[in-house]
Amino acid sequence: MTARLNPYLNFDGDARQAMEFYREVFGGDLTLNTFGEFGQADTPQSDKIMHAALETPSGFMLMGADTPPGMPYTPGSNFSVCLNGDDEAALRGYWEKLSAGASVAVPLDKQMWGDVFGMCTDRFGVPWMVNIGETQG
């Protein structure tokens, strides 16, 4: 079972271009998923990036997305720290501690892409995302 800690960057409509640029810089495999692929095909953001992941040959993981409608985009504060993996017990434990006294934007729960996911800003103002995927076996 695994758990990884990595940066998650937010963009103002140009996540695809930014993540393709980072692939040119670092190399590796880039996965891009649009809002349209996850049930929002008939919306203005259907071709925008809901989730991108760049796995580099050096072992770096960089993730990002276009800021969804209704959420503010604030340059300089456009990042989160993401914990992700398939070690459900460890990730739920991290969530419980990080979300205690935090502002919870998305409760830790099953999401449309199939994983369990939550977002909070801890009591020190650091934004966190926790994503629990299925065990790879």
Pick out the low-confidence regions. Answer: none
Helix content: 10-25%
Distance between the termini: 9 Å
In total, how many domains does the architecture comprise?
A: 1
Strand arrangement within the widest β-sheet reads 2-3-4-1-5-8-7-6
Radius of gyration from the alpha-carbon trace, in angstroms = 15 Å
Tally of separate helices:
2
CATH hierarchy class name? Alpha Beta
Q: Roughly what is the average pLDDT, rounded to an integer?
A: 89
CATH architecture: Roll
Classify the fold: give the CATH topology: 2,3-Dihydroxybiphenyl 1,2-Dioxygenase, domain 1
Q: What's the order of the H and E elements?
A: EHEEEEHEEE
Shape: globular
In CATH terms, the superfamily is 2,3-Dihydroxybiphenyl 1,2-Dioxygenase, domain 1
Largest sheet geometry? 8 strands, mixed
Q: Into which percentage range does the β-strand content fall? A: 35-45%
How many strands appear in the DSSP assignment? 8
Structural class, please? Answer: alpha+beta
